[in-house]
Write a structure and sequence with these properties.
- By secondary structure, this protein is α+β, with helices and mostly antiparallel strands.
- It has a single domain, classed as 2,3-Dihydroxybiphenyl 1,2-Dioxygenase, domain 1, CATH 3.10.180.10.
- Helix content is 17%, strand content 33%.
- It is built from six helices and 18 strands.
- The longest helix has 11 residues.
- The radius of gyration is 19 Å and the shape is globular.
Amino acid sequence: MPDLKPMKITRRPCPWVGGIVLAGLLLTGFTLEQAPTRGGSEDLVFQANMVFFYYKDLEKAADFYENVLGLNLVLDYGLAKAYRISQTSYVCLVDEKEGMHDASEPKTITLAFLTKELEAWYEYLLGQGVEMRSPLKDLSDSPFRAFVALDPEGYYLEFETYCDHPQNTKLINQLKTTKAFYSSTEDARPRPEGLGIQGNIIWLYYEDLDPAGEFYETVLGLELLVDEGFDKIYASSPSSFIGVVGPTSGLHRFTQKKAVNIGFFTKEVDKWYQLLLSRGVEMRAPLADLEEGLVHAFVGYDVGGYYLEFDKFLDDERNKALLEILNY
C-alpha cells in the first residue's frame, strides 16, 4: 500500500467525455460482456474494493475488527493489517505513523455492512459494549433499516438491511449473486455463527452530488444501482458499492481532509492509469512498485479530494492469502 508525498489538489473544469460501463457480474469482478460500452475495454475490471482507515492505536483497532466483528485477517504487513468483509470487500487498518493520512484528520466516511440479520447484529454489538452513534429504529415505511456503531477511534460503521422496495431492485438483485459470510463453527471469537455480512457500501460525502455522481458513473464507469435524489449507490465490485452523498443529508458533511483511502483491486493497473490520465483525473503520484515490491499501484483524487488507490498485489509470500482469494 503506497505511502507517497501529497501533491496539491487543484480545482479545474472536468474534461471527461465518455466512459465505460462495468457490468455483467462474475465472482472475480465485472466484465463488459453483458452491457453496452462507452469507450472502455473488457479487460478493465475491478476484482474487489478495500477501504483504508488510519489509527493511533493499531493493535486496539485490529482486536476490534478481528475479535468483535469477527473478520478474517488476509494481509499483515505489521503496520498495516487487512481484513476480509465479504466476497469482494476488505478493510485495511493502517498505523498513522506509516500511512498517507493522520488519524486526527476528519473521518469523513461511513463503512456500511449489508446484512439480513440486522436486529441480531445490534443486540450482539450492544452486548460487546460497542458504542452506538444511532440506535436501531423501527422505520417500517423506509426502503432500508439501519443502525450506526463506532469503532475504537470513531469511524462510523453502519449496519443496513435494504428492504423490498422498487428503488432497491438492482441492488437486491446484485446481492443475490453473492454469498453472505458467516463465522465458522470452529471460530473461537465471540461473533455468533448466525450473523452474516453480504457486502458493504463505502459512503462518501461531497459539496455537490452531481459532479460526484458524474465522476463515478462516467469517469470510472460504475453502474448506478440506487438513486434517492440526495445520494446514489454504484456497483464497484460484486459485493462492494460506492455511495455518494450530497450536502443536504448523510451522517457527515464535506471536509477537504479525510482520514481514508478508497482502494480498487485490478490486474490492469497500468491500463487504468493511462485511461484515467486521459480523462483528466489528477494523480497524487505516478504509477510505481511500492512497499518493497508488494504492490503495483497509483493514487489519484476524485472530485471531492478522496484518495483513490488502484492496486495490483504482486507475487510475494506476504500477499499469499490474498492472492489465493483473488485467484491470481
